[in-house]
Design a protein that fits this description.
Uridine Diphospho-n-acetylenolpyruvylglucosamine Reductase, domain 3; 4-stranded antiparallel sheet; 14 strands
Length: 270
């Protein structure tokens, strides 16, 4: 890791101004940024720590949606009583992230902005009709993830919150890497009155939806409806732990498990 200048602004405007400087990077929990710098996979001259910026954490209900502040840690998401009552699948997803250190330091906004192809939250962003709120604008979750570690964020843009729609029923299923606990493949399924969304993470360069399975589940939300489906998938990741073919198999299996878990739940009341 090379030397860098550490900044700890106390307002969102000050943070944005610091990020306007060339070779700057915001830091929320630091669980991905700092290891990547130590391994020299990334290199930044200025680190802008958002820890002292107020009003960036917490979970609340607003206008029928669930709003999660960007600096809300994974453990805060996992233990939120509001989420367990209104959107339990999101709390359960957070509970399965990493280890206790990662869950206590890592944040939802940092994870989404980092856009790791094996991160869990991106699947929730797509499945739960999320909107990414920044210091400059609001971005539909459907257009937020553009590729491997690529998002729609501009250089001086800071994620401040994420708004999630409340699904009637939802669940997340993950086949996790035994060391990192990242998703080898993870599938988030959400049922609404007008559609079903199926979002997959870990399998390809970035999170994606499966329209063929969504159409089948819209007519019949059950494992039986997709028992023999062979959906068209994007290019699959391949590594020492899982081949492309194995990941393609896991995609369908994790979707089935998520549907089974969601089907076992009573539909949430408005």
């Amino acid at each position: 890791m090379r030397d860098f200048t550490y900044h700890r602004p106390k307002t969102l405007d000050d943070a944005a101004a610091l990020l306007a400087v060339e070779d700057s990077r915001p830091m929320s929990g630091g669980m991905s940024l700092l290891p990547s710098m130590k391994l020299r996979l990334s290199d930044w001259a200025h680190i802008v720590d958002l820890a002292a910026v107020p009003n960036l954490s917490g979970v609340r209900e607003e206008g029928g949606q669930i709003v999660v502040g960007a600096r809300t840690t994974h453990v805060q998401v996992a233990t939120s009583q509001l989420l367990h009552a209104r959107l339990p699948a999101l709390a359960e997803l957070a509970e399965g992230i990493g280890d206790p250190l990662v869950r206590n330091r890592g944040t939802i906004g940092g994870s989404i902005a980092n856009a790791d192809p094996a991160a869990d939250y991106p699947s929730a962003v797509l499945a739960l009709r999320a909107t990414i709120v920044t210091n400059l604008r609001e971005i539909s979750g459907d257009t937020f993830f553009n590729g491997l570690f690529e998002t729609a964020l501009e250089p001086c843009e800071i994620v401040t919150a994420v708004r999630f729609a409340r699904a009637r029923r939802a669940a997340y299923a993950k086949y996790r890497h035994p060391a990192s606990r990242y998703a080898v493949v993870g599938a988030f399924v959400a049922q609404y009155d007008d559609e079903v969304r199926v979002a997959v993470t870990g399998a390809s360069s970035h999170v994606f939806r499966i329209a063929e399975i969504e159409a089948l589940l819209r007519d019949n939300f059950s494992v039986a409806a997709i028992e023999s489906v062979a959906p068209t998938l994007p290019a699959m990741n391949a590594d020492l732990f899982a081949s492309a073919d194995y990941r393609a198999h896991l995609v369908v299996e994790m979707v089935r498990r998520a549907v089974a878990a969601a089907s076992s739940r009573n539909a949430l009341a408005d």
